Amino acid sequence: MKKKAFIENTARVIFLISAAIAIFAVCAITLYMILKGTPALKEIGVLDLLFSTVWKPTADNPSYGIFYIILASLFGTTAAILIGVPIGLLTAVFLSEMAHKHIGNIVGGAVELLAAIPSVIYGLIGMMVLNPIMFELERKIFSDDSSHQYTGGANMLSAIIVLAIMILPTVISVSTSSLKAVSDTLRAASLALGATKEQTIFKAVIPAAKSGILTGVVLGIGRALGEAMAINMVAGGAVNIPLPFNSVRTLTTQIVSEMGYAGGLHRQVLFTVGLVLYAFIMIVNFVLLKARKAGTRP
Question: pTM of the full predicted structure?
């Protein structure tokens, strides 16, 4: 008994320390981003920084407007989620409810392989395969528009497609686990009441697993908002209004592209860009966490 109590107390202490470290890490990151990101807000002004559309940090009269950059991140992430989540959820339904065991193992292995591919590989494939396709599409659409500036296929649409593919492994894996965790009793009860298998899946199983599915969506949004390398390779890297065939920059690619040579106020503004990105991620997590709690209430 003494040995068992010692093991339990030791485990309790280890868990407590781990939780404290996690909380400390989040608080430390938050404090660091606030301390580094707020000086530029004070010097430039919140409205000028967040709602100006001109980004010219190296001009004689520099301008640090990140409004288009914010819009590119928000629109790109939203579009990627709207594309990726339905595909990921339907794939999870197939894996957990319909697929034969051998087929499920093959598809599941392919999903795990997608998750293991580095983001730079996604960017490389997008740059070599997707961008030329987008360029041909761009030429067909704007063939009669002499004022259009061609991007070579490196545009917002390419970034959205790459992001949608990159969030698939996360959404599929978490959703599959959530669907498999639903009790078979619920499925049996639904079928016993005369529901078809499809009705059981979409009206009983998925609602029962919506908390876990929403967790996968949250992780997917975090992946999409935080992706930098792949998007930097396929989006073109220009500060523009985020239209489908415009070359764009997101919050993450803005930091990656310019932090290496930035100095002074320019560098401070890039930390502010990071603070804005961090704030967006915290807001999204908070909102979806509230939605998840609301969804679990009877």
Answer: 0.87
